[in-house]
Amino acid sequence: MTTNILEYINAILVKEHELSVIALAGEIRNFVQQWHYERRTEAEKCKTILTPSAETLLSEQYQLSMRMGLDPASDIMYTVLDRDKNGVVDLQARTCSCRRFQLEQLPCAHAMIAIRHSKRDVYDFCSEYYNSLT
C-alpha cells in the first residue's frame, strides 16, 4: 500500500478510468464512503480508550520506563535517569528532551515514569488523535 492517498485511489480505480467524469466521481464517492464505513466499524470494536496501535506503543513505553530512575525537580518537572539517554520531562508543557513525547504526542518512556510518579492518568497526556472514539 502506498503512503499517498491519491496513488492508492488511482490504483483501486484503474478500470473506472474509462468512465465519464460524473460516473467516475460517483465511483470515487462510493469508494470513499465504503472506506469510511469499514474504518468506523473497526473503530467501534475497540474496547480501549486509544486505538490498538497507540495502546501497543504506550505498553512498550511503560515496559521501557520500568528500568528507569527518577529525580523529581517539582510536581511537573522531572529528570529521568536512563542508562544511556537521560531525559528531562515537563508534564505541564508535555515535553521531553528526547522529543518523542512531542513528536508522537504520546508519552515516551521518560514521560511515562514521570506520569506514574505524579499519580496522574496517562491517557490525559495522549493526543486526541489516538482516541478510538473520534
Question: What's the short story on this structure?
Answer:
The chain is α+β, with helices and mostly antiparallel strands and about 130 residues long. The chain contains five helices and four strands.
Give a verbal description of the structure.
- The chain has 134 residues and is of the alpha+beta class.
- Helix content is 45%, strand content 11%.
- The protein has helices at residues 5-12, 21-44, 52-65, 100-104, 109-117; strands at 69-72, 77-81, 87-90, 95-96.
- A hairpin with a 4-residue loop joins strand 1 and strand 2.
- Helix 3 crosses helix 5.
- The chain is elongated, with a radius of gyration of 21 Å.
Walk across the major sheet and give the strand order: 1-2-3-4
Helix content: 40-55%
Number of strands: 4
Largest sheet: 4 strands, antiparallel
User: Counting H and I runs of at least 4 residues, what is the number of helices?
Assistant: 5
Instruction: Extract low-pLDDT stretches.
Output: none
Structural class: alpha+beta
Spell the H/E element sequence: HHHEEEEHH
Overall mean pLDDT: 87
Tell the overall outline: elongated
Strand content: 5-15%
Radius of gyration: 21 Å
CA(first)-CA(last) distance: 24 Å
